[in-house]
Amino acid sequence: MTVATTLDPQAGYVVTASPSFIEFNDQTFAAFYQPILGPVAFSLFYALKARLRSRPTLASRVMQSELLAQLNTGGRQVIEALHRLEAVGLVQTYFQHDEVGDVYVYELQSTLSPEKFIADNLLSILLLEEIGENAFDQLVAQSRQFKLVSTNTVLTNISHHFFDEFHVNSRSITTTPEAIANARKQTSVEKQPSLTTDMADDFDWSTLMSLLANQPIVSTDLEHNRELILVEHQLYGIDEPTMKKLILRSINLKDNHFDSQKFKRIVASTYNVVYTQPAKVAEKDNPPVDKADGQLTSKDRQLLNTAKEYAPIEFLQDLKAQIGGYVTSGERHILTRLVEEDKLQRDAINILTWYVIGDRGNSTLSANFVDAIANNWLRNGIVTGSQALIQLKNFNKQSQEKKKQPVAKKKNWRKTINEPMPEWSKKKESELMKKASSQEITKLRERIANRKKKQ
């Protein structure tokens, strides 16, 4: 099934919730999830939550047009918001087509606890990048506000165990009671939706281990934080030598242990810094182009070669270095989605980025604008960087030609109507202004008197 690019108003939908949804926490949702979701996704979740009904069925479906009307926004914005909710594990979407038509089932999921959220590599990194280190530290402190802060304690856990206080029939332990067995059959044990399912691993882990072989670091720490390192690689396209430098900067000098929180902060600050100097997009030496095209200039070829060498986020980061900007979380989401859809080649995605930021001079990537260009390219069979460049050159040429064309004069379609002039208008002004005689006045009075008698 192809991924929808806009919410279908004619389709039906039903809202359900997982059994663990009873643990959903509004405060955690607002403090931890909202900054990375954005306002539309935040509103969408509560709009879906308001539709929850006891024992829902497909027969109780309602039209998605009602959802659009409630949110008062476009279908494209709503579908992007839904995809964000799915990506962070708050909504699972199911689809089927039956005799009534298309129907979607949106299953709401519970929020993670603050501690589990902070421990999650993907979510905690996104939140840190979105709100900054100071606000992030405040959230962490708030989530741990009731934890004992006294130091130099020698507390011993003297809590009683279950069997110290409760007695359970041994037969019930070995042979599960029928009521419990039936309940377990009806609903399997839930698992939190994985955020890293099918995440591509194109990172050479063995190469990284070789680069760090003689460095003062506890090697078991790296294996323990392998997912975190791979996540950062996926987000920013960090290669093995660069990752080595970032890891070494994250070592605790007291005990040589890898500090995962320090690593997150270093990566976030490195790839979200506001640049003031041009970077390597314009400076890097370029290898020869694999396939020459007569329509491309030498500058076009240089840009194309650079676009082929960089991951999309890295390319955007370097491009923004030339205008004094930084990559926002929304832009990372846009590029990540384009890469995951795997329809445009990565050099074409980079050319699209260059066109929006470098050529048109926009400060950020806009989802609507980027999607409009990408869909236009795909409709015209454009998937590579060279094809994208030629398409842009042809588009610019056509735009210039339209500007040079003289504007055609509008024809006057009004019809000229010739009306006959009244007799009095043909008389001279002296005749019109001539004073009436006493006889003419008498006749006029008689005429008026006769009219009144007839009435």
From TrEMBL:
Biased amino acid composition, Basic residues: 405-414
Region (Disordered): 400-455
Biased composition (Basic and acidic residues): 424-434
Domain DnaB/C C-terminal: 316-388
Protein name as annotated: Replication initiation and membrane attachment protein
Family: Belongs to the DnaB/DnaD family.
Residue stretches making up the Replicative helicase loading/DNA remodeling protein DnaB N-terminal winged helix domain: 19-229
